[in-house]
Amino acid sequence: MERTELLASHTLPIDEPALRSYLESKLPDEFRGVLEVQKFAGGQSNPTYKLTANGKSFVLRKKPPGTLLATAHMVDREYRVISALYGSGVPVAKPILYCDDAKVIGTEFFIMEYVGGRIFWDPTFPQLSAAERAALYAEMARVLAALHMVDYSARGLGSYGKAGNYFARQIKRWTEQYLASVTEPIPSMDALIKWLPEHVPADEKTSLVHGDYRFDNMVFHPTEPRVLAVLDWELSTLGHPLADLAYNCMSYHLPGVDRPPLAELAGPESGIPTEAEYVAEYCRHTGQKEIPSFGFYLAFSAFRYASIVQGVVKRGLSGNASSGKDALGYVTRVKAAANKGWELAQKS
Question: How far is CA 28 from CA 56, 106, 113, in A?
Fold first, then answer.
């Protein structure tokens, strides 16, 4: 599960002797003896580590240190949802252990299996052929549809969130989190905060939603266009499936670090489907014929993304972001997402 390069454990270190002692007491067969701890360099949220013991590898995810927003970094929810989904049609890593005792390593944490495979940070897949790119996009749409069709009550997740009124609650939540993290005025965010509550569609569908569904939160088979595990479930809840789909489509509207928005690259030559084609593939798996008011869902997703990234900026200024040296560079992303969200809102 190579998120990106591994770092020595002194980056956001954890108490390795305490961790080793705890794991030996809970899982003696897996963790007796030498324990190697390395931090994954990627990610701005919950610090993630690769653990190696007795020739086997595992992944540890924990809350970051410092003062945190009350509803952020809920690793207990991550562990609950992957435990519920393990063995379903949605691919997730095998859950191993959850520890709610912050005295062990300073915060709550959980351990899951290490899933080897490919993780793609660039959705243009420059190393692949057009046909391979198309296959990966089709698989991403298929897995998202499978998630939204899960009988969440039957999987023990009936109390994982509230059914209905999702967007009103989410707009309130992310407005509050944005205002708690804001570092400078952004007029387009202020405009979205006013516009979004006034334009919520009447549709009240409810499904299990991932909340951060994109290519770099998936482990693909080493050679096949097949997802082995969907990662990073900390934002998952019961919600509206089109919020997930619209967020998944943000790469069509927002540029990456070294690429333009995917809308400028999509087509038969690249193998990247257009946004309309990708949405149609998702609808094919869910049995939908069309999606009314998709512009609202896109505007909301841009707003939500801007709020999330603003939290990264705030943590960077406070010195407790998971990848602190990059956090301050995210200021421009907040403004770009807010501006795009307002543009989409006005078009809708």
Answer: 13, 22, 16
